[in-house]
Specification:
Strand content: 5-15%
CATH superfamily: Aldolase class I
Oligomer: single chain
Shape: globular
Number of helices: 12
Number of domains: 1
Helix content: 40-55%
Strand order of the largest sheet: 1-2-3-4-5-6-7-8
Distance between the termini: 10 Å
């Protein structure tokens, strides 16, 4: 069985003091049950990475960044490189729909970032997902499949087994209206794991962990995590409270029967 991975994307939230309070609370909540059979990751803003790393200490919580540029250094004002992140984090979120929508990120750019992440020892969490119009028009499988192909251009099979995909239907992010577990599972099976199998074979496809993201809460995490193709969640708003995120971790472990 693929190890479940629950990652909390803080987005543009939390001052340094608030970040420490959240991590301390999460550590306390997680200490109340055995979460060793799942990977738990927090992804704060760049400004809080060092502080959060110190607050995590030796706790079994991974640390991820929310984005990066692909060049290791240079005249790229305002950007953060994989060389800078590798000393702080293990994971990096790439291609989030908000980056694509508000900052013009493309499949080609995401692909560059994936290669750079691997070159510097970072594990990419690669986001894909369709908007409401594409969903209603029945274009989801084709569109998401195209994002997957674009992300994996010239990525080796060995590296592909180590990255993480996150299926985040844009219409479900922050809206309180998630996809159904069955519907998300079907899209993941066809447009992500199916493309992986086409590109690399069934054995590689079976190893890749795929999250669902989009209004995941303690109340619905079991619905998603009980699906065979869904290996975790990329959590937004519900990760900003320690008890809520811990309940999602607990629910995911229970849903997988671990």
């Amino acid at each position: 069985m693929r190890t479940p991975i629950l990652a909390g994307n803080w987005k543009m939230h939390k001052t340094l003091d608030e970040a420490v309070t959240l991590v301390k609370g999460l550590k306390s909540e997680l200490a109340s049950f055995d979460h060793s059979k799942a990977d738990v990751v927090v992804c704060p803003p760049f400004t809080a990475l060092t502080t959060v790393r110190q607050a995590i200490g030796d706790a079994a919580i991974g640390l991820g960044a929310q984005n990066m540029y692909w060049e290791p250094q240079g005249a790229f004002t305002g950007e953060v490189s994989p060389l800078m992140l590798k000393e702080l984090s293990q994971y990096v979120i790439l291609g989030h729909s908000e980056r694509r929508q508000y900052f013009g990120e493309t499949d080609e750019g995401v692909n560059h970032k994936i290669h750079a992440a691997f070159e510097h020892g970072l594990i990419p969490i690669v986001c894909v997902g369709e908007n409401l119009e594409q969903n209603k028009a029945g274009e989801t499988v084709g569109f998401v499949g195209g994002q997957v192909r674009g992300a994996l251009r010239n990525v080796s099979a060995e590296r592909a087994t180590r990255l993480i995909f996150a299926y985040e239907p844009i219409w479900a992010i922050g809206t309180g209206v998630p996809a159904t577990g069955e519907g998300a599972n079907e899209i993941i099976a066809k447009a992500i794991r199916g493309i992986l199998a086409e590109l690399y074979g069934d054995a590689v496809a079976a190893q890749v962990r795929i999250q669902y993201g989009g209004s995941v809460k303690p109340a619905n995490v079991h619905e998603f995590m009980s699906q065979p193709e869904i290996d975790g969640a990329l959590v937004g708003g519900a990760c900003l409270k320690a008890d809520s995120f811990a309940d999602i971790v607990r629910g995911a472990i229970e849903a997988k029967g671990l």
